[in-house]
Write the structure tokens for this entry.
Amino acid sequence: MKKYGWLIGILAVIIILALTIIPSYNGLVNKEEDVDQAYAQIENQLQRRLDLIPNLINTVKGYASQEQEVIQSISDARANLAGAQTPGDQATADDELTTALNRLLVVVENYPDLKSNETFQQLMDELSGTENRIAVARKDYNDAVSTYNRNVKRFPGSIVARVFGFDEKEYFKASEGAEEAPTVNFGETNE
């Protein structure tokens, strides 16, 4: 029996390591999937917004053809958001689009008939609901990233993460200056 003592010792160490590594690895896989799923929800809601905007723009165009600059800035921001690849790029593009949409709201104030247009009102309600969904999706994503990143940093998860290539995830952050409301002034001319 003494002959096999070292073998039993090695097996015991392997079993202990397996009992530590397997749950930690599976936990990281689950948390990473939670992050990916939450991010997919952000993308889903951003796509919903992107799909609504052309209808909104066309409705506004019918009433405010001279406000081409605002309409163009929304189209450009929409294109930037559609082309963004990383959470940081999407956050920046999302801020641009939000600023452009805020400028649109100022235009709407100048056209009382537009505000009472049923199609416009329905689109604005849908857009407002989508904005709320985006905010919830961002929060859910950041919560999932927080949980995942904690697991990547804590022991024994940090060892398992390093060995199996689990890296920290990027939060969906607003770009710098997003905390300030945009200034809209149609009285100035661009030269």
The longest helix spans residues 5-63. Residues 184-191 have pLDDT under 50 and may be disordered. The CA atoms of residues 66 and 112 lie 15 Å apart. Helices lie at 5-63, 68-83, 87-109, 112-116, 118-153, 157-164.
